[in-house]
């Protein structure tokens, strides 16, 4: 086993770290408080290649591998989880599906716009009545008599970047009554008639990442914007989520690392009973457990990213590795940020330090792109072959 990174991987890690520490970290608390979308930073990150890290240069991206993506995500998330949420939706949920299943024209038009930072992308699967049971969607797409377009009606909820997205990968039923096999994927232009934005979600964490409901009323989607073939939508959605889960695992690692680094500094400096609190055994036990969970999460995340890279070359799958990485990394992030707040005491609870933000931000990683319960289900189904 070779744990060394390539020069290219080290280079994107260093570029992302530099931008994250100089430009994102100083404004993270301000954006968290206001809930404002950090558009300028996101556009600049797009120009740097960070919104399409695995996207080939001909479609406006950086043309790098999944490990590079994971390393860059970790750096951005360590500065601010909300920025990394927007980054992960653009990279994994939007670009990934179109790159894998899209036509040349779709890649040139839509992937290019998002990967270059010109526009923001989103992914719409969840509906008010369907979350974990994603195939239980009601949004309906009906092909027009002349075959030129689909008429779409329905509502999607919890759409990350929904309030600002120009283009959205949408999943809708084209053949009702046959479950997952009746789902198709479409590329939506939010400037076209029939697209509406609904209520925005007031959230516990990742507050600068905008989230809202979206609604379609007789929206006419050109047939050229069907992604893949009719009936392939659910598999596209699941394949995209496999990639997305590596992004969320990386995000969790970034949040956990930031909380761990801050704690390490704190336990060396902060004194109680005449000694640095890091010399007390109860603190040492927490530090040891935090470090083990952080490294385990990091290694599983990098393994999943590496497996995705191998799968692209050899045609294998990486869903199980992605689910394991997301499960372990998100639970590590929650546990580590919890301990970090505890060790910081009153200062951990104060908005004067970023610990309480890390704690709030970590929670979403156990929920979105498949809850921990769903990840356990995917892993166990794969291991046992049982359903
Ligand atoms: N890649 C490709 N295809 C996949 C897949 C994957 N990772 N996972 C499932 N599929 C395919 C299956 O092979 C099956 O195809 P066939 O009918 O040809 O056999 C089809 O999709 C349906 O799969 P399955 O029967 O396993 O679907 P279920 O309804 O049981 O759902 C879970 C499976 C629960 C795993 C899925 O619905 C899921 O991941 N839910 C969570 C959704 C989620 O993450 N939501 C968050 C939205 S983004 S914030």
Please sum up the structure shown:
With 387 residues, the chain is an alpha+beta fold.
Helix and strand layout, with pairings?
Elements: H1 7-34, H2 39-47, H3 66-79, H4 81-101, H5 104-115, E1 121-124, E2 140-143, E3 149-160, E4 167-173, E5 183-189, E6 195-200, E7 211-222, E8 226-227, H6 233-269, E9 271-272, E10 275-276, H7 281-314, H8 319-344, H9 346-349, H10 355-364, H11 372-384
Parallel strand pairs: 1-4
Antiparallel strand pairs: 2-3, 3-7, 4-5, 5-8, 6-7, 9-10
Helix pairs in contact: 1-3, 3-4, 3-6, 3-7, 4-5, 4-6, 6-7, 6-8, 6-10, 7-8, 8-10, 8-11
The structure holds coenzyme a persulfide (COS).
Describe the structure.
The chain folds into 3 domains: 114 residues, Acyl-CoA dehydrogenase/oxidase, N-terminal domain (Butyryl-Coa Dehydrogenase, subunit A, domain 1), CATH 1.10.540.10; 110 residues, Butyryl-CoA Dehydrogenase, subunit A, domain 2 (Beta Barrel); 151 residues, Butyryl-CoA Dehydrogenase, subunit A, domain 3 (Up-down Bundle). It has 11 helices and 10 strands. The longest helix is centred in the middle third of the chain and has 37 residues. The mean pLDDT is 98. Helices cover 54% and strands 15% of the residues. The radius of gyration is 21 Å and the shape is globular. It is an alpha+beta fold. Helix 3 runs antiparallel to helix 4 and helix 6 packs antiparallel against helix 7. A hairpin with a 2-residue loop joins strand 9 and strand 10. The strands form 3 sheets. The chain has a 4-stranded mixed sheet with strand order 1-4-5-8. The chain has a 4-stranded antiparallel sheet with strand order 2-3-7-6, with helices on one face. The structure holds coenzyme a persulfide. The site of coenzyme a persulfide has 19 residues, from helix 6 and helix 11.
